[in-house]
Amino acid sequence: MAQTIPKKTAGNNHFVEEWVGKVYTTLCVLFLVATIIAMVYFVASRGLSTFFKDHVNVFELLGGLKWSPEGSPPSFGAFPFIFGSFSTSLLAALLAAPLSICASIFMIEITPKFGRKFLQPVIELLAGIPSVVYGFIGLSVIVPLFRDIFPGQGLGVAAGALVLSIMILPTMTTVATDALASLPAGLKEGSYALGATRWQTIYRVVIPTTLPALMTGVVLGIARAFGEALAVQMVIGNAPFVPRSLFESASTLTSAITLSMGNTAAGSTHNNALWSLAMILMLMTFVFVFIVRWLEGRSKL
Known about the structure:
Layout: H1 4-52, H2 58-63, E1 67-68, E2 75-76, H3 79-110, H4 112-125, H5 131-149, H6 157-181, H7 185-193, H8 198-227, H9 230-235, H10 253-260, H11 269-298
Antiparallel strand pairs: 1-2
Helix pairs in contact: 1-11, 3-4, 3-6, 3-8, 3-10, 4-6, 5-6, 6-8, 7-8, 8-11, 10-11
């Protein structure tokens, strides 16, 4: 009888701990779901007010070339901002993707011990640097360099893309490194057994097998660049026009929102139009998440 009481007490404690854990995690999940739904509803309700309350044509907002909300008559053409966001993000991905994939191959396939122990932490440190530091370096180094070499003032899509490429490099490299490290050793051993060299194994076996995972890192990098505001705002020039070259000033959706949101009255047409730009950013984020999930489904070995 003396041994039965402690067993019951321990069983009751485990029962209480299990239920406390279940209730706590369920409440956390419900809170996250409610927060996401509330954010989507809030942004969508404000963004759609531009079309249903202020009667701005959706095609004018998406395809218009003139952004003059305070003009007479006002214009709400957001295509220069959309073009600036896509051009800087895609160009940054083109610059960063080869570097990140080569760095991950170097760390995993060429020098695994040195790469994983020293090089990977150094690259991951880039993710912890504040974006304002990247913007200040771009404004102090890259913009004067472009001004001396290329025509224009140095501000523009090229400077913004170069700064963004450095910022998204850790994201792409980390995903690519994890993908290469998770590759089954039997695939490479089979290639070596057939007489293939290291480089033949890398570009005929390793890269084709992990390509969906590598592209997942690229898409995550584009999503990161698409939502960046401060750093690109400091070096792109913030001109609401479609640039004719990479060295002309442009603007992005994030820079247009951050520069104007504080100067507009809540509920005004200008303010609602800025919320419409935020809704476009949110929808593009959903598209990027969908692409990443699709690529993850194809990368299962």
